[in-house]
């Protein structure tokens, strides 16, 4: 896991824009939060909300890797921004639920 795209904590945007033809992995790390409350992930949901009505941005696949969630994203139209919302569910009772939204700029590279 050396060359993965992670978000900027202050801006909520990934550091590198995504080319419309690229299929790349984007990660959200829940380790600090889960460790602080003594919980683990029991499930997740990733949704994309493009700004262009003709967008081709697609969530190819997502999965949990330890205490992180990875989303593989393809497509998009140059110039648009895609909001990527990660929702996770903790395994404790009562069930913890948290959302984080990150922003992905689509740009020809």
- The backbone outline, from C-alpha atoms, is elongated
Largest sheet: 4 strands, mixed
Overall mean pLDDT: 88
The helicity comes to under 10%
Number of strands: 7
Strand order of the largest sheet: 1-2-5-4
Poorly predicted segments: none
β content, as a range? over 45%
Rg measurement, Å: 14 Å
Helix/strand structural class: mainly beta
Distance between the termini: 22 Å
**SSE ordering:** EEHEEEEE
| Count of DSSP H/I helices | 1
Question: What's the gist of this structure?
Answer:
The protein is mainly beta and 109 residues long. It is built from 1 helix and 7 strands, in the order ββαβββββ.
Main attributes?
109 residues, mainly beta, four-stranded mixed sheet, elongated
Explain what the structure shows.
The strands form 2 sheets. A 4-stranded mixed sheet has the order 1-2-5-4, with no helix packed on it. The chain has a 3-stranded antiparallel sheet with strand order 3-6-7, with no helix packed on it. The chain is elongated. It has one helix spanning 31-37, and strands at 5-6, 23-29, 41-50, 58-65, 68-74, 81-90, 97-105. The protein is mainly beta and 109 residues long.
């Amino acid at each position: 896991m050396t060359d993965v795209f992670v978000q900027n904590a202050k801006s909520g945007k990934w550091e590198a824009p995504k080319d419309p033809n690229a299929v790349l992995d984007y990660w959200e790390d829940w380790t600090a939060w889960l460790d602080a409350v003594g919980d683990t992930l029991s499930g997740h949901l990733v949704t994309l909300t493009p700004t262009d009505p003709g967008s081709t941005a697609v969530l190819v696949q997502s999965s949990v890797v330890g205490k992180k969630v990875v989303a593989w994203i393809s497509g998009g139209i140059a110039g648009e921004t895609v909001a990527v919302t990660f929702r996770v569910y903790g395994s404790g009772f009562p069930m913890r639920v948290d959302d984080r939204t990150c922003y992905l700029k689509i740009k020809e590279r």
